[in-house]
Amino acid sequence: MQAEVLPRSVTEARVLSVRHWTDTLFALRISRPSSLRFRSGEFVMLGLMVDGRPLLRAYSIASPAWDDGLDFYSIKVDGGPLTSRLQHVRTGDRLLLGHKPTGTLVLDGLRPGRRLYLLATGTGIAPFASLLREPEIYEKFDELVLTHTCRYVEQLGYGEELVAGLAEDPLVGDIAPARVTYYPTVTRAPFARRGRITNLIETGALFRDLGVPPLDAADDRAMICGSMAMIADTRALLEGAGLIEGSSSTPGDFVVEKAFAG
Ligand code: A2P
């Protein structure tokens, strides 16, 4: 019998657990190769062998850099080449993982500030699940605001549990609950807070609800993760308020990354 040849750009990891959050959303926890290094907030290639060939997509790592395992959060795309298969993996299955995590949603991309807004839609919350469990974020910022906008209420479950779980976190449990404000909104069903985050920023409702001043480049920093359209619209609002986009090499007031569809 011939062993399957693994492409050089990938390594193998085992599925540790799978959780189906809704009929369109699921989470995976996989083993972490000892050689895999990354900064909280980065993404990595993840996938499967399909018909003898590697099929991988970029996925934000949803666990912090200090964690032993790797968490991911994904949509299930009907007929999607990867997610239609990935959603069926079980504990013990083998997955393919890229060697080199990378990305722009990292703390190095931001100048110090007082308040950090983490602005997510859909599965764009994944990198913030990593960052909110990263002790450095609490050293760099006094206040963290996690906004999560989804079409339907049941799609908020992952974020609700993330935020509730911060109190039990071994590294940030003592500090996070008092410093993190969770701001969920829903666009297509009844909910306490309705509307796109862009609308809530534009009307000032976000700042009134939080009891904070409007965006100000002196104090405020932001990270954005969502669809291309969401990023474009949110970036325009931040730039309109005088915030400047940054990167690891030139830190600024905000950084962006598209939420990857599997
Ligand atoms: P809406 O229901 O009004 O389209 P999606 O699943 O399409 O990525 O959307 C996830 C969430 O992001 C939805 O609540 C959606 O609102 C919202 N959204 C979509 N496009 C934008 C945008 N350009 N700016 C802000 N929010 C957006």
Question: Which tags fit this structure?
Answer:
262 residues; Elongation Factor Tu (Ef-tu), domain 3; binds adenosine-2'-5'-diphosphate; globular; five-stranded parallel beta sheet; 2 domains; Rossmann fold
Task: Briefly summarize what is shown.
The protein is α/β, with parallel strands linked by helices and 262 residues long. It has helices at 83-86, 126-131, 135-140, 157-165, 176-179, 197-202, 205-210, 228-240; strands at residues 10-22, 25-31, 43-50, 53-60, 69-75, 94-98, 115-121, 143-150, 180-186, 220-226, 254-258. 21% of the residues lie in helices and 31% in strands.
Structure, explained:
The chain is of the alpha/beta class and 262 residues long. The protein has two domains: 3-98, Elongation Factor Tu (Ef-tu), domain 3 (Beta Barrel); 107-256, Rossmann fold (3-Layer(aba) Sandwich), CATH 3.40.50.80. The chain is 21% helix and 31% strand. Strands 4-3-6-1-2-5 form a six-stranded antiparallel sheet. Residues 121-122, 149-151, 187-188, 196-198, 226-227, 229-230, 233 line the site of adenosine-2'-5'-diphosphate (A2P).
